[in-house]
Amino acid sequence: QVQLVESGGGFVQPGGSLRLSCSASGFTFYTYDMNWYRQAPGKERVWVAQIEGVTGKPTYADSVKGRFTISRDVAKSTVYLQMKNLEAEDMAVYYCNRPTGDYWGQGTQVTVSS
User: Fold this and answer.
1) How far is the C-alpha of 106 from the C-alpha of 31, rounded, in Å?
2) Which of 23, 10, 20, 26 is nearest to 82 (CA)?
3) How many Cβ atoms from other residues are within 10 Å of residue 62's Cβ?
4) What percent of the chain has pLDDT over 70?
5) How far apart (Å, rounded) are the C-alpha atoms in residues 30 and 51?
6) How far apart are CA 68 and CA 49, in angstroms?
């Protein structure tokens, strides 16, 4: 069955960096689009970035463009979200998503605070 497992969250000061990972299993990884979403306390879950399945083309929400990079390692069936210059507004639970079939991971917490 399809499984998505996020890791890499943690505590970081403003201006710091983190790399999130999403380990995928149960499907042919590289043929599917994959997304990262985030949900801040008291707010709706919002889309952050996507990497297209076949082409690997990335797209980003305006709020993270230039600071976040989505990438993947096909051999490891893993999607990454490299986050730089983190701001307090980036603090959220980050979720990995495969839109086809609407599969979600359990989320990983990112805390940005001085």
Assistant:
1) 22
2) 20
3) 6
4) 100
5) 10
6) 8
pLDDT at position 29: 79
Instruction: Enter the tokens of residue 31.
Output: 């043929």
Distance of CA 13 to the CA centre of its chain: 19
Decide if 38 contacts 20 (C-beta within 8 A): no
Contacts of 42 (CB under 8 A, 6+ apart): none
Asked if residues 97 and 84 have their Cβ atoms less than 8 Å apart, the reply is no
In the block, tokens 């999130």 appear at: 20
φ, ψ for residue 25 (rounded to 5)?
-150, 160
Find the length of the chain: 114
If DSSP codes are grouped into helix, strand and coil, which group holds residue 45?
strand
Burial class (CB in 10 A: 0-12, 13-18, 19+), 101: exposed
Q: What is the pLDDT of residues 79-90, one digit of tens each?
A: 999 999 999 999
The 8-class DSSP code of residue 75 comes to G
